[in-house]
Write a structure and sequence with these properties.
Elements: H1 7-60, H2 66-95, H3 100-132, H4 136-168, H5 192-217, H6 225-228, E1 231-236, H7 243-258, E2 266-269, E3 275-280
Antiparallel strand pairs: 1-3, 2-3
Length: 283
């Protein structure tokens, strides 16, 4: 029996959570700066979203994987997207002469269809991934599905409730909600032929490179080690190596010896020993 330390997973988990936290703060700041009072309330709704997501993951005992974290972060983006649609409609209603109370009501009503369309189509994709996918793909699908449902709830219920509370408390000055600017009219249709040609060229170039990639690497796509198989080498060192040291000192030597990129080498540290496992696609 050999216990393999979760150094790779814990390192990736730490960096993923830091990236998610930084992105969350930046998104909240942008929402507040751009949409003022509604943006601040949307930030509170996003905090509620994160809390509800963690509660559901804990109560249901859902296994959290790195792809699962990606699903959560993606659903946060979709929650922000729903708020942007709503707030834009509210600004358009205010610009049309409605008071703040009526603008808020009309904004949610008119944004509902677009929000449901976008989220339902993504939900369908998650069901397909859950039905046909395996392993970490299912983890991504589960967290994304839960996140989408929660994001719709927080955007359509919690944000709406907070906006109505703000209006009832007397925050009715239109400058706190913003007024939609008159859109600039551009004739995009006249350049449609050029756009079609550019798109076609890009698609054709991509298709041409598929056989070129196969002639060089033997495969049309660059599959990861999980799909191609390879070699797992356990090395016993005279001293203990942590993940960072193995990546910076040993991995470059292996990469040079077998002519691969350092990033393609998977590394695991065996707990309680001086052993490190190196996995490569090269046999």
């Amino acid at each position: 029996l050999r216990h393999v330390g979760a150094t790779l997973g814990s390192d990736a988990l730490s960096t993923s959570l830091k990236a998610g936290a930084v992105g969350f703060v930046i998104v909240c700041l942008i929402m507040i700066v751009v949409y003022l009072v509604p943006g601040f309330l949307a930030a509170l709704a996003l905090v509620a979203y994160v809390i509800l997501m963690l509660l559901i993951l804990s109560i249901r005992g859902i296994t959290l994987t790195l792809p699962g974290i990606a699903g959560i972060l993606l659903s946060v983006g979709m929650a922000v997207d729903a708020n942007v649609i709503i707030f834009t409609r509210i600004r358009e209603e205010i610009a049309a002469g409605e008071n703040v109370r009526n603008a808020v009501k009309a904004g949610f009503s008119k944004a509902l269809t677009a929000i449901l369309d976008g989220n339902i189509t993504t939900l369908i994709a998650t069901f397909v991934l859950m039905a046909l996918g395996t392993g970490s793909i299912k983890g991504f699908a589960v967290t994304l599905m839960v996140g989408i449902i929660l994001s719709m709830f927080t955007a359509l219920v919690i944000t709406r409730m907070l906006l109505n509370i703000a209006v009832n408390l007397g925050i009715k000055n239109k400058k706190f909600y913003g007024v939609a600017k008159k859109p600039k009219i551009r004739n995009y249709v006249k350049n449609s032929k050029i756009c079609f040609v550019i798109s076609a060229v890009i698609i054709i170039v991509g298709l041409v490179f598929l056989p070129i990639n196969k002639s060089k690497n033997g495969q049309i796509l660059n599959f990861a080690l999980e799909f191609t198989g390879g070699t797992s080498t356990t090395v016993e060192f005279t001293e203990s190596y942590d993940l960072h040291r193995a990546e910076t000192e040993v991995a470059p030597v292996i990469a040079e010896a077998i002519d691969v990129q350092v990033g393609t080498i998977q590394i695991q540290v065996v707990e309680g020993t001086n052993q490190v496992i190196f996995k490569t696609a090269e046999l």
